[in-house]
Amino acid sequence: MHIREKMIDALYCGILGDALGIPVGSSSGQQLALCAVKNMFGYGRWDQPEGTWSDDSSLTLCTMESLAKGYDLEDMGKTFCSWIFDGHWTSTGFVFDAGLTTFMALDRIRNDNTSARFSGCVDENDIGNGSLMRMLPAALYFASEPIESFLTAVHEISAITHAHPRAKLGCGIYSLLIRELLSGSDKTHAFESTIDLARDYYGHLEEFKGQFKYFEHILRPDFAFRAFEEIKSTGYIVETLEAGIWCLLNHSNAKEAILAAVQLGMDTDTTGMLAGGLTGLCYGLKDVPEVWLSSLARKPDIDTMIQNFVAVIMRKAIKVSL
User: Fold this and answer.
1) Cα Rg of the chain, angstroms
2) Residue 279 lies in domain
3) pTM for this model (two decimals)
4) What is the C-alpha to C-alpha distance for residues 147 and 153, in angstroms, rounded to an integer?
5) What angle is formed at CA 248 by the lines to CA 247 and CA 254, rounded to 5 degrees?
């Protein structure tokens, strides 16, 4: 699969994972074991139509829109503000799902005129997955950069809302895995390489030394062999990251990985977003039902944004190679 198609499919699969997870958000794994999600449907937890997507996709699309104009952290922060305060890039015309940490950070930008470089929350309570869920386009955009500038950008983009070192480290691990998958590595090699890269890069940085213990399970080569019952899918960045990577490593197509992510319960939309993005890079859309894609809210707008964004990345990669 050509690198262009890999990026396009990953972005679609991420949004599909979000939309599939929305109706059953906050349901427990035990509840979903009794009534498994098998197809796209609507009018669940948020009482929204089939194909509705959440803040995960909204902020992913906002990230794409901003990066398509070039990397400008202040522009990205303002674009995020347009989403939460004005309904920009929402599936319904209004925001129905937003995290407190994200709201507090964006409120500083909009109402206190704080720079996006200093708006993020740094408290121990601010280690949710609200920056992780929107990191796919950033990882794709900066993938051709040297690892230092690649991860610096990932950390900066996370820190618009989530500036705690654990949040930045989680986004870094996820982005390194995206980078390895995009390069053509099979998922096992990509995962093993990600572990090595993360340990090498973060191991000598004082800011992150105390955070490695929280990612102990992910940074083990045998992580894929953990049982389904051991995987949690909460709003905590470490557990969301574990769930998304586990679904990648234990499934052989995007459809099954996304459904497994949703089946874990709790933060189903974000886990679906992560698993979808990763498996979209690996397997593409070939096993994904066409009806899932056609049911997405604002699909023509999504089509245009994804095509434009990926075209920008391809032009950027050509310039870097010259």
Assistant:
1) 18
2) 3-321
3) 0.95
4) 10
5) 95
CA distance 166 to 183: 26
The one-letter code for the residue type at 287 is D
CA distance 230 to 31: 16
HSE of 214 in the Cβ direction (CA atoms, 13 Å)? 19
Distance set, CA 36 to CA 127, 181, 278 (Å)? 29, 29, 22
Confirm if 215 and 238 have CB atoms less than 8 A apart. yes
DSSP alpha helix (H) spans, 117-227: 136-141, 147-158, 165-182, 187-202, 206-209
For the stretch 244-280, what's the b/e string if a residue is b when 16 or more beta carbons lie within 10 angstroms of its beta carbon? bbbbbbbbeebbbbbbbbbbbbbbbbbbbbbbbbbbb
Q: Are 175 and 199 contacting, i.e. CB atoms less than 8 angstroms apart?
A: no
159-209 pLDDT, tens digit each? 999 999 999 999 999 999 999 999 998 999 999 999 999 999 998 899 998
Number of domains in the chain: 1
Q: What digits encode the pLDDT tens for the residues 15-74?
A: 999 999 999 865 555 566 546 677 788 777 778 899 999 999 999 999 999 999 999 999
Cα separation of 275 and 13, whole Å? Answer: 8
CATH number (domain holding residue 88): 1.10.4080.10
